[in-house]
Amino acid sequence: MKKEKIARRTLLQAAAMSALGALIPGASAQQAPPEVWADPTKTPGVPVGKLGSRSPFERLEKKASDISARSPLQDFYGIITPSDLHFERSHNGVPNIDPDKYELLIHGMVERPTVFTLRDLKRFPALSRIAFIECSGNFRTGKETMTPQEICGLTSQSEWTGVMLSTLFREVGVSPKATWFLAEGSDAAVMTRSIPVSKGWQDAMIAYAQNGEAIRPQQGYPARLFLPGWEGNTNVKWIRRIELSDQPFMTREETSKYTETIRGGKIRQFSFDMDARSIITYPSYPQQVMRGWIEIRGIAWSGRGKISRVELSTDAGRHWHTATLQEPVLDKAHTYFRYLWRWDGQHTEIMSRAVDDTGYIQPTLQQLTAARGTDMGGYHLNPVTAWIIQRDGTVLFKPEKFR
């Protein structure tokens, strides 16, 4: 009789927590502390269900603002970002699109203008690849109490599945004279970007799946343009139209937005590739370490190819050591790195820098400023990031000014 009461209570509590999470947007385990069973072998557990869930003790969350939400990089153990923790960036909210009514129009300088339904897209040969997406505005600084999530949490990685854009280009008969195409989204901002046709032939994809399931609405459901290695805003979500042309379309997002000032009063436009970058995710703020052996861990990535090596400094940049790269090391993908270090308890700074297979070396903020000037804006900043380790083991971010 006692066992039945315990089981009933357990089921009611589980149902209540589930209902609360469904009714309250953004509800999390932080708002409902989990019940701790003194001896789980004496209490029947929650029964199986239709959907899995994280342990209520694991409190991973994105850090949201009005226009974006950052991935908790410091909480990840590998290179795949859980779909619900993939960073978000939208220009006018997330649209609700019926997949049965979805259409993608490809027209312009083509032989056969065509409208593709989602079912049509899924009939073509599919391809899957693991690669990152990163917002070009993915850098913040200013105070010591910043986490990797706050500094550069606008990057995430998934396994993307879809139809290669080159397949669709052949299907519609793209003109050899076409050099650009317009990608247009179905959101309220009608996000549009001009993309070189060469990228479409190379490795662009119309992705409809992410990490083994239909792509999430925040990531472009039911289909998005995926351009491996290129700045996030070119990877137009909820894509509805592709128009082929022999010149760029000069849209708002590539004239007044997503351009960078450089020295000499010039503007850098169409800077698509995301440069090599790395960040140490452990130890980092607000973690605290103890004297002795520490495995320094982090991620590195490059939009131009593979990471060839990651170098670590544990003495504020005076000496550099080569970290171990965790397999697989993939093209245009987050790569996990590790370095075993014995901390002697003295005040120091630790930092990492990535090198990709083109020979590009991740720069310091001072090097970026020297090349572009202090008015370089907030796009395509990929500086070496340093963490201060104090004598008591407290870890703090080292902010730097460039304006």
From TrEMBL:
Coiled coil: none annotated. It is an enzyme of class 1 (oxidoreductase). Its cofactor is Mo-molybdopterin. Residues 33-54 are annotated as: Disordered. It comes from the Bacteria. Residues 91-250 form the Oxidoreductase molybdopterin-binding domain. InterPro entries: Ig_E-set, MoCF_OxRdtse_dimer, Mopterin_OxRdtase_euk, OxRdtase_Mopterin-bd_dom, OxRdtase_Mopterin-bd_sf, Sulfite_DH_SoxC, TAT_signal. Residues 271-381 form the Moybdenum cofactor oxidoreductase dimerisation domain. Pfam families: Mo-co_dimer, Oxidored_molyb. Its EC number is 1.8.2.1. Keywords: Metal-binding, Molybdenum, Oxidoreductase, Signal. One of its GO terms (biological process) is sulfur compound metabolic process. GO terms for molecular function: heme binding; molybdenum ion binding; molybdopterin cofactor binding; sulfite dehydrogenase activity; sulfite oxidase activity. Gene3D superfamilies: 2.60.40.650, Oxidoreductase, molybdopterin-binding domain. Residues 1-29 form the signal peptide. PANTHER family: SULFITE OXIDASE, MITOCHONDRIAL, SULFITE REDUCTASE. This is Sulfite dehydrogenase. The gene is soxC.
